């Protein structure tokens, strides 16, 4: 902490305030030394404003991050698994068993219904994801 105090005591007021705007990235000893130096120079008001600005900037960056949430990852995996299974069933299932035509057609219709419902869920998911992206861009 002594090194921080010595370094900060040699810095100008503008440099200290610029450093205070990066408050979130500093270690605890650096924050303590910077706070003490700003108090000793009667820059506490400017320091608080710079710290608030830094925390608001960090909050804005966090809100704008485009990383998908856990629920979105789970939904994407569900869609991928559903798509793969629908394609496999639709292409392979009618040829796997030598069943009568009625049974084959009945099972085939079930599989087609499943794949069609998958497409509906995919469209819904894409629309909701698009709304989320647009809301993030507007904020």
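Q: What amino acid sequence fits the structure above?
A:
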């Amino acid at each position: 902490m002594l090194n921080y105090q010595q370094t900060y005591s040699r810095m100008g007021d503008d440099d200290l305030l610029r450093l205070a705007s990066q408050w979130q990235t500093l270690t605890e000893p650096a924050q303590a030394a910077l706070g003490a130096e700003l108090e000793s120079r009667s820059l506490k008001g400017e320091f608080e404003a710079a710290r608030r600005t830094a925390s608001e900037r960090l909050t804005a960056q966090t809100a704008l991050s485009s990383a998908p949430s856990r629920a979105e990852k789970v939904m994407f995996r569900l869609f991928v698994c559903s798509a793969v299974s629908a394609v496999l069933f639709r292409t392979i299932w009618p040829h796997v068993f030598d069943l009568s035509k009625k049974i084959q057609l009945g099972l085939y219709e079930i599989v087609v219904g499943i794949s069609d419902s998958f497409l509906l869920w995919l469209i819904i998911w894409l629309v909701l994801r698009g709304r989320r992206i647009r809301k993030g861009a507007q904020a």
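Q: And what stands out in the fold?
A: Helices lie at 2-10, 13-20, 28-40, 44-63, 70-96, 101-138.
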